[in-house]
Amino acid sequence: MNQTPENTTETNPFTKPGFIIAAALVAALIAATVLIFLLPKEQGNTQATPTQQASSATPGPTVSGTSDESVCGLPAGKDTALGTAPKSTWELVGTMAVPTDPSKAGPGAVSDDGLRSCFAQSPTGALYATANIWAASFNGHAEQVYLELAAESPTRDKAVKAIEEGKDVGGGASPKVQIAGFVIHSYTPNAAVVELAIKSNDGGYGAFSTSLLWEDGDWKLDMPAAGGGTVRQISDLSSFIPWAGV
Predict the structure, then answer these.
(1) What's the predicted TM-score (pTM) here?
(2) How many CB atoms lie within 10 A of CB 68?
(3) Fewer CB within a 10 Å sphere, N or C end of the chain?
């Protein structure tokens, strides 16, 4: 379909019943839970394109603690873009299907409690890292994501402090969503901005951008100081590369 994506408005999403699809996003680290909202397929209001929205979130090229060597020995890629969907093997993390390629893109390590880490320094590795980080956040591992898969920043420090004080930074029911597509808005070996399209059980679509930093040999979630991320409501996948495991 060649339709214009329909995105979030500036209005209060709490006035739109039935839009809550997920909790435990990055703003939860300050001590509260942030909710993602999706419109049903028929609803929405046109706003900026994904590229316009991601431009303000593009991380700078200078990153502390970067390393060209993967922490688990995965090979770095030479590509700087990903214009087609990678051929992926999918596994379930909770209720969400995620891509896996342990010898090339990652995850190269899975902890005893199921947390997945170590992704290749490549566009595909950044994409796989984004999918696996959010699946972990959505399925009971939000605290581990903040502690182990977040880049160093004052925002992460607040999350760690909240966790140490016993505050719940990962509350909320697991969302019933699946990855439906992606766009990599920017990529360098040290930073990337990946936008995932997701589909809810009722057939609605949403999308959110994630900034990643290459730190200590792995892709880490770059938590924005204001909390949350760029969340959009979309009507279809016309602006995304279709990519799904379910």
Answers:
(1) 0.74
(2) 10
(3) N
The percent of the chain in helix, strand and coil, each rounded to the nearest 5, is 20, 25, 55
- 74 burial via Cβ count (<10 Å: 0-12, 13-18, 19+): buried
Cα separation of 25 and 49, whole Å?
22
In three-state secondary structure terms, 131 is helix
Bond from prior residue into 107 cis (ω within 30 degrees of 0): yes
Instruction: Specify whether the CB–CB gap between 99 and 105 falls below 8 A.
Output: yes
Compute the distance between CA of residue 124 and CA of residue 80 in angstroms, rounded to an integer: 10
Note the pLDDT tens digit of each residue in 187-238.
999 999 999 999 988 888 888 899 999 999 999 999 876 545 567 788 899 9
| C-alpha–C-alpha distance, residues 237 and 197, integer Å | 7
Q: Specify the pLDDT at position 147.
A: 87
What's the token pair of residue 171?
A: 């509350």
In the 3-class helix/strand/coil scheme, how is 189-226 assigned residue by residue?
CCEEEEEEEEEECCCCEEEEEEEEEEECCEEEECCCCC
